[in-house]
């Protein structure tokens, strides 16, 4: 199973202004990542905004978002089309 993890970005120039998204395997390997700028620095992305980021990355959510008080959120995902392996 793959899991999308969204969390506030920590780089000095974007702290509080964006969220990092990582797609993890069951073994915690990161297979895809991206950054999304927030509409407002103090407001986390909405579920719909997170879903749009996943779609742009060619993934779709297959379970509920689980949000944490610190602004993190995660959900199970799957690729829109089969993943390519090298």
How would you explain this protein's 3D organization?
- There is one protein chain.
- The protein is mainly β and 86 residues long.
- The protein is 12% helix and 40% strand.
- The chain has one helix and six strands, in the order βββαβββ.
- The protein has one helix at 47-56; strands at 2-8, 18-24, 30-37, 59-61, 66-67, 73-79.
- Strands 1, 2, 3, 4, 5 and 6 form a six-stranded antiparallel sheet that branches.
- A hairpin with a 5-residue loop joins strand 2 and strand 3 (30-37).
- The longest helix has 10 residues, at 47-56.
- It is globular.
- The model has no long low-confidence stretch (mean pLDDT 88).
Structure described in brief:
The protein is mostly beta strands and 86 residues long.
Task: Give, in order, the helices and strands.
Answer: EEEHEEE
* Biggest sheet overview: 6 strands, antiparallel
Distance between the termini: 19 Å
SS strand fraction = 35-45%
Shape: globular
User: What is the tally of helical segments?
Assistant: 1
Radius of gyration: 13 Å
Helix coverage percent: 10-25%
List the uncertain runs. Answer: none
Structural class: mainly beta
Which helices and strands appear, and what pairs or packs with what?
Elements: E1 2-8, E2 18-24, E3 30-37, H1 47-56, E4 59-61, E5 66-67, E6 73-79
Antiparallel strand pairs: 1-2, 1-6, 2-3, 4-6, 5-6
Protein traits:
1 helix; 86 residues; single chain
